[in-house]
Amino acid sequence: MREIRVGVVGVGNLCSALLQGIEYYKHLSASPKGLAYSELGGYWPGDIQVVAAVDIDERKVGRDLSEAVFSAPNVIEKLCDVPRLGVKVAMGEVLDGLDDISKGFRNVSSSQPKDIAPLFREMGVEIVVNMVPSGSQRASEWYAEKAIETSSAFVNVTPSYIASQKSWVERFRSRGIPVVGDDLMDQVGSTILHKAVLRLLHDQGAHIGRTYSLDVGGGAENLASLSPSRKRVKREIKSRSIGSILPYEVLVTAGTTDFIDFMGDRRESHIKIDGTYFMEAPFHIDIKMETHDSINGAGMLIDVIRAVKIALEREISGLLPSVTAYAFKTPSNLPVAEARSRFEEFIRGERER
Question: What DSSP assignment string belongs to 123-150?
Answer without folding.
Answer: TT--EEEE-PPTT-HHHHHHHHHHHHHT
